[in-house]
């Protein structure tokens, strides 16, 4: 029963994402045709007849409900329509842009978890006050550095000066490193902040005293008990982190001249290219739904209390 | 003729580069040109494309019936070796050269040209440029396999120049078995040009490869036969700092859209900076003469005198940009030099306003019958420096007591506002190497951006220049149109948009065609 309810919820979330994105783009002044005309550098002024003709070609002249119904019906078959700017299928555009984005965000997530986690654990574990201070002041710094600037700085140093990695494109692993670091920085900082805070909270809990009294060493208390419990809030953060990575990919993909979801989302939103925006948003919503489902499934494995509730419910 | 120094400058840079440490000697075949574009071409079919980035790609893939000399503006043979213009410029008969083929092996014959032109018309408004060039298109007729006639319902003098553009480039009949959307993505984009599309990743790169056996180049090109370059790799590099850094560090061979602040680093050191002002309507404040203070011709004239154009190019732009000397760019055929009328003269501007009853108000802005001397300008950021330019113009006009309010809008909003007519000034430019662009923007039968009444003094000369390809009649009409626009200040020209490339030590002869888009047939690379 629980699973069916969850699936229904997922469907509602996807539908809501689809509908809201459509409404928002529809309510904005202008439409994709006007944007297309406005970006034509060599374009003479299009006559009102031409504008009307273009609107008709893209089906933008139909009433909102008809447009919405058509889009929704096609979307149910996985077809989000044709991009007004590129003429490519929206589904195809999103699916081709997905792998490069996943590669960078995947590596960024790995770096963020490893380094963010390390900063938090070491920062709370070490007895050297200066080291603790130094480590724990890194996360606020990490969140305050603009990724755009960090990316340019990294390119300047590692690509233009030292010539270690290419500045452009998405050819091979070398091209992943700098964008992944840029993207990992703010994400890792959030992970470090949340984990450090909950580690401290855990270490102040009464159960820690009991564990200590039972003869557990510092390491065992820190890694065996506190970290395990502190991991829960950090795990809940997965959704935020994923959103963060997706948003950050707009900047990194522009700075590093890469194709990807971020780039096509940014340009589709500015162009009011409804089919592409909807394809991206539904895909993103799908990821969030799956991610949250996974988190919910993993949670009881870590926390016996949650496991009990789930068993009763199921 | 300072406007036409470009080909000389190009030749000079080729020689100058050759004398450097890199190498000298004649152009040599082979190699890849890695070229950084500032924006992603959304659709690479030149018949549908309307952005510079896309047209810079499309030009290399398709040939046109004619070519246009960037130096003189003259129309010369290309796929057509001669042509005749009949009626009152309503009928154009092209005699095709023999031997040209599309990259799928089929011949470039009259039937193919007809299919291609019909195809552009069928695109409707999806071919924004092509359709405006073919306005009034009646039919293309296959007279014999090597002769095709194109008929229009009304005089259409601009068509001859249009036949030289990539927008009317000829695609193979097989291309039209693909949908317009597929051609956008390079699928079925089969032309007879010196390069063929071999790869297209949106937002990423476009690869063109040399067509072997090509031998029907334009006589304007420096060599005949196949192109020198084996490959052209266009990379999309949106961030200007990364673009310049990539060129400086040798990861690219040439880049487009060099920002004025970055220009200095590419003068010398083996680098060169080919530049060419765009032909067509220069960046201007296009007045809506039905609104507010701009309905008064003296106010418009005062604004024109109150703008210090050389200061705009020297402070906000660079020495590569030219102050406007007409509403048309200096590289446009039949451009006429009106620099005297466009000279900076704040004293005369003040006197004009004074005589018109505008007196300085408490804040320095003039007033008349309780009305403030103010107008707003609608613009978008299509050109990076637009905001800075307009802020400077705003300061300049403040000195004559005119309050220019600047309104930045998105592309969507600007085109909506432009369509609706709800503006005082519009800020824009249009690239077109034919004076007929004035008719398209100013005529009551065209865009009529000034919202002129039907009996305005400009209309006769606009109509006259579009009615004949005879230079003796067309030239004076086109010149009169420019003079009327500047004198009446229907639009106030400010500066000429200029293409500024930066080219690394290994690349040579990266050139422009007549509309200031890239022509890469003669380009070559040394070393490897």
Automatic annotation (TrEMBL), chain A:
Signal peptide: none annotated. Keywords: Cell membrane, Membrane, Transmembrane, Transmembrane helix, Transport. It is found in: Cell membrane. It is a multi-pass membrane protein. PROSITE patterns: ABC_TM1. It comes from the Bacteria. The keyword ATP-binding does not apply. The chain crosses the membrane at residues 7-28, 102-122, 134-159, 171-196, 230-256, 276-299. One of its GO terms (cellular component) is plasma membrane. The keyword Chaperone does not apply. GO terms for biological process: transmembrane transport. Residues 98-299 form the ABC transmembrane type-1 domain. Its main location: membrane. Belongs to the binding-protein-dependent transport system permease family. This is Peptide/nickel transport system permease protein. It comes from Amycolatopsis sulphurea.
């Amino acid at each position: 029963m629980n699973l069916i309810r969850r699936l229904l919820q997922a469907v509602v979330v996807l539908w809501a994402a689809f509908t809201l994105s459509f409404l928002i783009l529809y309510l904005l002044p202008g439409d994709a045709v006007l944007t297309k005309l406005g970006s034509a550098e060599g374009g003479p002024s299009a006559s009102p007849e031409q504008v009307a003709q273009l609107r008709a070609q893209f089906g933008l002249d139909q009433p909102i409900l008809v447009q919405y119904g058509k889009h929704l019906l096609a979307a149910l078959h996985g077809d989000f329509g044709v991009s007004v700017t590129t003429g490519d299928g929206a589904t195809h555009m999103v699916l081709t842009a997905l792998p490069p984005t996943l590669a960078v965000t995947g590596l960024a997530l790995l770096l963020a978890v490893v380094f963010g986690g390390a900063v938090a654990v070491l920062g709370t574990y070490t007895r050297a006050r200066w080291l603790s201070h130094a480590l724990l002041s890194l996360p606020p710094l990490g969140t305050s550095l603009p990724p755009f600037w960090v990316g340019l700085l990294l390119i300047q140093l590692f690509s233009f000066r030292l010539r270690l990695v290419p500045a452009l494109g998405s050819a091979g692993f070398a091209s992943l490193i700098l964008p992944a670091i840029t993207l990992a920085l703010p994400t890792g900082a959030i992970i470090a902040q949340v984990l450090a805070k909950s580690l401290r909270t855990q270490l102040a809990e009464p159960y820690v005293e009991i564990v200590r009294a039972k003869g557990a060493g510092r390491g065992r208390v820190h890694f065996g008990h506190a970290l395990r419990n502190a991991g829960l809030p950090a795990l809940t953060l997965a959704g935020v982190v994923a959103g963060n990575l997706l948003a950050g990919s707009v900047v990194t993909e522009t700075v590093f001249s890469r194709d990807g979801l971020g780039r096509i989302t940014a340009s589709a939103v500015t162009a009011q290219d409804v089919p592409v925006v909807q394809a991206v948003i539904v895909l993103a919503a799908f990821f969030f739904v799956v991610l949250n489902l996974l988190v919910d499934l993993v949670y009881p494995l870590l926390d016996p209390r949650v496991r009990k509730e789930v068993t009763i419910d199921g | 003729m300072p406007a036409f120094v470009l080909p000389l400058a190009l030749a000079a840079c080729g020689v100058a580069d050759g004398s450097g440490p890199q190498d000298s000697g004649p152009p040599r075949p082979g190699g890849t040109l890695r070229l950084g574009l500032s924006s992603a071409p959304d659709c690479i079919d030149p018949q549908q494309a309307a952005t510079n980035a896309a047209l810079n790609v499309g030009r290399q893939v398709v040939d046109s019936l004619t070519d246009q000399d960037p130096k003189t503006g003259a129309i010369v043979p290309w796929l057509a070796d001669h042509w005749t213009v009949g009626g009152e410029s309503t009928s154009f008969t092209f005699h095709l050269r023999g031997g040209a083929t599309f990259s799928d092996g089929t011949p470039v014959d009259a039937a193919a040209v007809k299919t291609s032109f019909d195809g552009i018309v069928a695109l409707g408004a999806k071919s924004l440029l092509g359709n405006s060039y073919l306005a009034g298109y009646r039919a293309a007729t296959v007279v014999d396999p090597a002769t095709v006639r194109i008929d229009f319902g009304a005089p259409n003098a601009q068509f001859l120049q249009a036949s030289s553009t990539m927008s009317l480039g000829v695609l193979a009949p097989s291309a039209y078995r693909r949908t317009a959307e597929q051609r956008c993505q390079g699928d079925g984009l089969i032309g007879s040009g010196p390069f063929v599309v071999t790869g297209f990743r949106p937002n990423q790169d476009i690869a063109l490869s040399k067509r072997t056996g090509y031998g029907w180049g334009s006589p304007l090109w420096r060599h005949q036969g196949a192109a020198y370059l084996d490959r052209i790799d266009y990379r999309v590099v949106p961030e200007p700092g990364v673009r310049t850094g990539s060129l400086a560090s040798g990861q690219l061979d040439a880049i487009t859209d060099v920002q004025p602040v970055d220009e200095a680093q590419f003068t010398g050191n083996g680098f060169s900076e080919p530049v060419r002002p765009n032909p067509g309507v220069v960046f201007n404040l296009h007045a809506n003469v039905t609104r507010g203070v701009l309905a008064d011709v003296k106010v418009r004239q005062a604004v024109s005198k109150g703008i210090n154009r050389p200061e705009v190019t020297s402070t906000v732009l660079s020495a590569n940009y030219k102050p406007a000397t007409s509403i048309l760019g200096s590289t446009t055929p039949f451009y006429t030099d009106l620099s005297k009328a466009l000279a900076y003269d704040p004293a005369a501007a003040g006197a004009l306003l004074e005589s018109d009853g505008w007196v300085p108000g408490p804040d320095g802005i003039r007033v008349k019958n309780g009305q403030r001397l103010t107008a707003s300008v609608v613009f978008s950021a299509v050109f990076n420096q637009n905001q800075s330019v307009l802020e400077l113009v705003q300061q300049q006009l403040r000195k004559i007591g005119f309050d220019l309010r600047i309104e930045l809008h998105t592309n969507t909003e600007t085109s909506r506002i432009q369509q609706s007519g709800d503006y005082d000034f519009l800020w824009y430019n249009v690239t077109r190497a034919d004076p007929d662009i004035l008719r398209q923007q100013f005529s009551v039968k065209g865009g009529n951006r000034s919202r002129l009444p039907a009996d305005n003094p400009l209309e006769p000369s606009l109509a006259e220049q579009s009615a004949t390809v005879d230079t003796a009649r067309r030239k004076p009409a086109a010149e009169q149109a420019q003079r009327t626009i500047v004198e009446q200040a229907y639009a106030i020209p400010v500066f000429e948009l200029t293409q500024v490339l930066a080219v690394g030590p290994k690349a040579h002869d990266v050139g422009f065609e007549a509309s200031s888009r890239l022509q890469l047939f003669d380009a070559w690379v040394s070393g490897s």
